[in-house]
Amino acid sequence: MMTLIMHRLHIALQGAWPALLIVGIVAAAQIFLITRPLEYLLTNILPDDAFYYFEIARQIVLGSGSTFDGLAATNGYHPLWMLVLLPFFAVFGADVGGLEPIRAALALSVLLNAATGLLVWLILGRFTTNVFVRTLGLAIWALNPFLLYQGVNGLETSLSLFFVALLFWQALKIEEKMAAQGQVTLLNLVAFGLIGGLCILARLDTAVYVGAILLWVWLREMSRQSFKQAVLAGIVVFVCVAPWLLWNVTNFGMLTTSSSGANMLVNHTLIFQDNGTGVYQAIKGEFYMIHGHISALMLRTSAPGLAYMLFGSALALFSIGAWTIPRRLRDIPVAYSFALGFALLFFLNVAVRWTGGRWYFVSFGILVAILAAVVIDTIRGRWPFRERTKQLAALALTGLIAFLFFTWWHKELTDPAVQQREMYATALWLDDNLPDARVGVFNAGIIGYFSHADVINLDGLVNNDAYRAMKEQRLYEYLHDAGITHLADFPIYLTYRYRSFWGVPDITEHLEELQTVFLGGHSRSGDGLHIYKVK
């Protein structure tokens, strides 16, 4: 069996030395990043949310169950990545503030990113036969500084992106089977279902990719047989996901996670808190979120000018008839369903939930790489320039991409989270000054992971009790119910972001300030992180 797998892999990657070179460069760069000192990891690589995963994994290994703080149970995470983390904490130790299990998990992320890179290479091979164009597409995806950093962010990103790419690759194989044989095998459908189930467990909102491709399987033939095929694959997906859904409903009375609900609650509340309620404000909020996140999406290609040029070129190719929109359902390629899946992913997060973390839409890079390959391939075929001209154009384009990537890295990815130094310093201050206190924190990941104090999450992401209190606007009451004696966070979170959830007019009247932790040299945290005693 292993021999057969290796043989097929050898055939698939034959002539893939450009891909192996690019993947090797990226892996080396990411290994360099994850072996940097802790301060660099905190300010450049690991967001506070990653430490929610690490602390919950630590608590599970210690036998405390699915909890961040040992007080409240939580389902505020994507389950497959949590399962992946557990062995690292079991093997490398579950000590407070331990770095060994984190570095081991990040090393796995590097391997997952390398595997995803090879999958993207295989995917691009379905859209172009030209090695240079294929290599350029992979470079646009793999060497993107934003993706290079997000691929080792300690969250589910690398695992999710791997399964999204694997899902699309399996969908392309199904499309190939349909074109060659007029039907798809049971094995292909079951494999797609298994991959789809794991894809959803890796990141729950990728269910839209699975649904979009299953819809394509049915509508392509629009027959009873194709409907049965889609249903069969869907059943396999459901069987994979059902245990997680059952656990959620049984223990928490919800299908989704507390983190998804809390984020949506806060962002919806902020729009109305700042602008008032009403249909007009809701519509304005929709446009504000969509516009802002589309701009951010293009910026995070690390070459927004190039991305806009690619999309503009695609429209131009449609307008001159070089590309045409399929008129029959059976002629619609599965790539369209993948694009539809991303559009739904973006719309549901941005326009419905009004939220979108930096890592939510990393799969957009695969679409950009495919678009680049198809646009360049079409231009090469439609306008046969002289070989010398092609070489100069290729050199100029490569240089432009390298320049844009470096510029974006230097501007956007140099100490983007410098305020997290103060969160780490606060964890140490709590150990020295309030080791026996129960401290409520909104940005609780770093402080909770590195402090021996009893740190309670207040933003509801990994505390279902706090999430419930937020929905009922009684967060101040929850402080007393949970025995929280102190608060620690940046003032903007207390007096602005979560102002509507306290249940009291002015939370500062119920607090006594004890300490400010401000390391200086930046303005991202205002005047620092404040520590208060709850009256």
UniProtKB/TrEMBL annotation:
<feature type="transmembrane region" description="Helical">
    <location>
        <begin position="332"/>
        <end position="352"/>
    </location>
</feature>
<feature type="transmembrane region" description="Helical">
    <location>
        <begin position="306"/>
        <end position="325"/>
    </location>
</feature>
<keyword id="KW-1133">Transmembrane helix</keyword>
<feature type="transmembrane region" description="Helical">
    <location>
        <begin position="230"/>
        <end position="247"/>
    </location>
</feature>
<protein>
    <recommendedName>
        <fullName>Glycosyltransferase RgtA/B/C/D-like domain-containing protein</fullName>
    </recommendedName>
</protein>
<dbReference type="GO" id="GO:0005886">
    <property type="term" value="C:plasma membrane"/>
</dbReference>
<keyword id="KW-0812">Transmembrane</keyword>
<feature type="transmembrane region" description="Helical">
    <location>
        <begin position="358"/>
        <end position="379"/>
    </location>
</feature>
<keyword id="KW-0328">Glycosyltransferase</keyword>
<dbReference type="GO" id="GO:0016763">
    <property type="term" value="F:pentosyltransferase activity"/>
</dbReference>
<feature type="transmembrane region" description="Helical">
    <location>
        <begin position="391"/>
        <end position="409"/>
    </location>
</feature>
<keyword id="KW-0808">Transferase</keyword>
<keyword id="KW-1003">Cell membrane</keyword>
<feature type="transmembrane region" description="Helical">
    <location>
        <begin position="80"/>
        <end position="99"/>
    </location>
</feature>
<feature type="transmembrane region" description="Helical">
    <location>
        <begin position="192"/>
        <end position="218"/>
    </location>
</feature>
<dbReference type="GO" id="GO:0009103">
    <property type="term" value="P:lipopolysaccharide biosynthetic process"/>
</dbReference>
<feature type="transmembrane region" description="Helical">
    <location>
        <begin position="155"/>
        <end position="172"/>
    </location>
</feature>
<keyword id="KW-0472">Membrane</keyword>
<dbReference type="InterPro" id="IPR050297">
    <property type="entry name" value="LipidA_mod_glycosyltrf_83"/>
</dbReference>
<feature type="transmembrane region" description="Helical">
    <location>
        <begin position="106"/>
        <end position="125"/>
    </location>
</feature>
<feature type="transmembrane region" description="Helical">
    <location>
        <begin position="131"/>
        <end position="148"/>
    </location>
</feature>
